[in-house]
Amino acid sequence: MAIKKKMCVNHPDRPAIGECVITARPICSECTTRYEGVNYSKEGLEILRRRRAAEARRSSGGERLAAALLALGSPLFLFLLYLFYLLSFEAVIDLLQLEWRDVFQGL
Ligand SMILES: [Zn+2]
């Protein structure tokens, strides 16, 4: 019984050396691109490239959202800081007034 060798999908006359990890098609050495330690066919690499590009778009969209939130949030944050500053300043004045009153009452 003859063992049927897998042939390259692009070159039916050439034996396949492996399969593309994306398309799972048998490919010969010429059609194989080794990338990040695994074999890809030309189509597989293209699919990978598109996936990566889509991921990059998603993550940059997330960064844009974060930047927008930061742009909206930082004036709010500064305003809160200002409020906190005013409140703490007022508290200090209150404290001082209380102390001054105590000082005058003591006289
Ligand atoms: Zn081939």
What is the structure about, briefly put?
By secondary structure, this protein is mostly helical. It has one domain. It has one helix spanning 42-106; strands spanning 18-19, 26-27, 33-35, 38-40.
Description of the molecule:
Helix content is 61%, strand content 9%. The model has no long low-confidence stretch (mean pLDDT 86). It has one helix at residues 42-106, and strands spanning 18-19, 26-27, 33-35, 38-40. The chain is built from 1 helix and 4 strands. It is mainly α. The protein has one domain (18-106). It has a two-stranded antiparallel ribbon. The protein has a two-stranded antiparallel sheet with strand order 3-4. It binds zinc ion.
Query: How helix-rich are the residues, as a percent range?
Result: 55-70%
Strand residue percentage: 5-15%
Which molecules other than protein and nucleic acid are bound? zinc ion
Q: How many beta-strand segments? A: 4
What's the Cα radius of gyration?
Answer: 35 Å
- Counting helices, strands and paired strands, the structural category is mainly alpha
* Uncertain runs: none
As for the number of domains, it is: 1
Task: Report, as a whole number of angstroms, the end-to-end distance.
Answer: 117 Å
Along the chain, the helix and strand elements come as: EEEEH
State mean pLDDT (0 to 100 scale). Answer: 86
Largest sheet: 2 strands, antiparallel
Instruction: Give the neighbour order of strands across the main sheet.
Output: 1-2
Number of helices: 1
Shape descriptor reads: rod-shaped
